[in-house]
Amino acid sequence: MSTTPHTRKPAHRVGLRLFKSNRARTLAFWFFGLAFFAAGILLLIVAVAPTPDITSLENRQIEQSTKIYDRTGQILLYDYNRDARRNVVALKDISPNAINATIAIEDSGFYSHGGIRLTSIMRAMIIDVMGGSLSQGGSTITQQVVKNTLLTNEKSFIRKVHEMVLAMKLEEVYSKDQILEAYLNNIPYGGVLYGIESASQAYFGVPARDLSVPQAAYLAAMIQAPSYYSPFGPNRAKLDERKNLVLDRMASLGFIDSATRDASKNTMVAFSSSGENSVLAPHFVFYILDQLQKEFGDTALKTGLKVTTTLDADLQVQAESIVRRYAAENTTKFRASNAALTAIDPKTGQILSMVGSRNFFDTTIDGQYNTALALRQPGSTMKPFVYALALKNGFTRKTILFDVPTQFSTACSPSDTSNMTAPCYAPQNFDNQFRGPMTAESALAQSINIPAIKALYLVGINNAVNFAKTFGLTTLGDANQYGLTLVLGGGEVRLLDLVGAYSVFANDGVLNKPTGILEVTDAQGTTLKKYEASPSTVLDASVARDMSEILSNPNARLPEYPLDSALTVSGYEVAVKTGTTNDTRDAWVVGYTPSIALGVWVGNNDNSPMVKSIAGMIAAPMWNSAMSYAVSKYPKEYFGEPTTISSSLPQMLQGNWRIPDATGSIVPHSELYWYNKNNPAGSAPSYPAQDPQFNNWEYGVSAWYNRFPNLF
Questions:
Q1: pLDDT, mean of residues 123-150
Q2: How far, in Å, CA of 326 to CA of 332, rounded?
Q3: For the chain: N or C, fewer Cβ within 10 A?
Q4: Edge to edge, what strands does the sheet with 351-355 contain?
Q5: What is the pLDDT of residues 520-543, one digit of tens each?
Q6: Once rounded to an integer, what is the mean pLDDT over residues 222-234?
């Protein structure tokens, strides 16, 4: 009799599976055994541990203040934590909005746990161990009361156990309301502010009992990192995001309904300017505090640090005065309510001045927002980076580019030289005029759009984006985001980074990234951080000097700007470039000498347009006033000699566009006919029509020739 065969697992596989199963059970047994043992030990420690006195918390000593100085180490810009303020109030005198917002974001299970959340602690410890750090949270409000008032800031497992023990002990003796009251009266809210009453009065000018839902959400959002989330610092947008997170948490927990949440998200909340006399160079100071918090942690700011910054206090005072004066004038003349300024030492990258608005304490213009760190479209201030890449690739400052009406979209007819309806792209110059053949030097100095777009095409959009990023303009996105609009300011940059990028031209092609700190020492005088130069060469010195020659030549700016315009600093050789965005939403002027680079931005924080004009009118007077003072403070230096243009180069690279054919006739042809964009110093391309832009460019030049035949 036959039997149906069946499959049997090999004995060694069965054994292996049993071994793994037994090992897993063994590990689980030991893990839970140790966990119960640890829990027992913890309960025993809690039983014998002394009970902390919660009533003594209000009498504890405030931490030491961090002092921030200018570059001399003598002028105090800000004393963080000086004259700490704490106004103790009963829980009944704190708005339920504030209580609910705090619980929602800090400890949603506060009224149900016994002082600690074992699941959060285990998760935090596992992540800490696996990540090799002790950075994870998981603390309840009760633990935070212990950590912030009874223990040191040391991070260790022993201290964490001590914290847990005291938290459980506190819960045995004090009610939840007593613990919450102690927490809200002692938690730091930034700078000198401790406790919700002081914070409420300082930030909003109201007692804690009157805090609205959005105000309460803002205060709760700041608790995690008061310096980072300061409403006066560079991370206001991040504070707004976290405020919205608090509101979402409040809604999900049933503290507010969805209508209140949505209305609170859209409510404009003004922060008080009561600290006007307590800080010098406020935008810069909060920029530095943010750097310190990121590097050393928020608690380090209360340990008596001494911070010597790079700021030139004298230049800063002058810059603030100049920005305030000209910005007030611009409000009337150009509907431009705000302005910013940054100055940098090109040889070191050290920030000498930073003005983030015309008035830090003016809430009507959102003055606390640091526009020197804001992402804005740079307009034509992007053009020098495209031209610099062209020079790097073999073009010269005398290379001919035709400023003629041109349709740049190959999807449209070459004759559509004024069609801007997608997919067509035929941009105009600012004045709607065309100048015919121009040298690259004149085209850049006068900021003419059509030659700049051609230069971008010749070097390649992707190459131009990557090249600009090496200068420190890292906020630019991918090339496919911009197309040929990049050279007209299609990306977004920060004023601080833009001035740092221009510093490369000033420093013979060497980049020193912007930095604001010279030295940080602790309360014992030990150096924690010290400035160290880290230069990197991103451009040949010869190209940098050619760029400085172009941008400092007042004759090349004719007739767009007269010789005595606001772009000229009397008695000094200064390179400068302007930029204005579409609809005149942003106006820029950035200039430099080998000793200092200084840039200004003018516009409105809400991105509303100004009166239609150019940066040479809107921003240049402010820039000239600041630059004139700045150059007087630093060594008078001159740019190196520009490159000599060889007579062996192709005629178009020498500035000669009247090129005869074999019969001696002047033949009108575009740039793509005369030189190879990949090797401009070499022979002309054999088949120029292979370039997809050739027909469009040829049409533009031919049409210009037919209009002005005598030029040729």
A1: 61
A2: 10
A3: N
A4: 351-355, 338-344, 597-603, 586-592, 575-580
A5: 999 889 999 999 999 999 999 999
A6: 84
Contact 501, 385 (CB under 8 A): yes
The vertex-300 CA angle with 294 and 303, nearest 5°, equals 160
How far is residue 434 CA from its own chain's centroid? 37
- Report the distance separating Cα 690 and Cα 678, nearest Å: 14
The answer to whether the CB of 339 falls within 8 A of the CB of 326 is yes
Dist. CA 461–CA 468, nearest whole Å:
11
Q: What pLDDT band is residue 361 in, cutting at 50, 70 and 90?
A: confident
Q: Tell me the two tokens of residue 141.
A: 């409000």
Beta bridge partners of 536: 511
> Average of pLDDT values for 234-259?
93
pLDDT at 465 over 50: yes
CA distances from 284 to 69, 338, 516 (A): 11, 17, 8
pLDDT tens profile 61-110: 445 678 899 999 988 898 886 656 667 889 999 999 999 999 999 998 89
> What is the chain's alpha carbon radius of gyration, rounded to the nearest angstrom?
32
What residues have CB less than 8 Å from 452, skipping those under 6 apart?
Answer: 380, 383, 386, 387, 443, 444, 487, 488
Higher-confidence residue: 453 or 431? 453
Tell me the C-alpha distance between 92 and 389, whole Å.
66
Instruction: Identify the residue with better confidence: 84 or 196.
Output: 196
Collapsing DSSP to helix, strand or coil, 709 comes out as helix
Supply 19's token pair.
Answer: 């071994």
Two tokens at 536? Answer: 């990197």
Cα 456 to Cα 465: distance, rounded to the nearest angstrom: 10
- Mean model confidence pLDDT for the chain: 86
Alpha carbon distances (Å) from 449 to 66, 182, 254, 615: 49, 63, 56, 15
Distances from the Cα of 465 to the Cα of 293, 476, 518, 538, 581, angstroms: 32, 7, 31, 14, 18
Helix (H) or strand (E) holding 385: helix 383-392
Copy the structure tokens of residue 189.
């809210």
Cα distances (Å, whole numbers) of residue 431 to 427, 446, 448, 589, 620: 12, 12, 9, 19, 18
Q: The pTM is what? A: 0.76
Q: What residues contact 134, with CB distance under 8 A and at least 6 apart?
A: 128, 155, 156, 157, 160
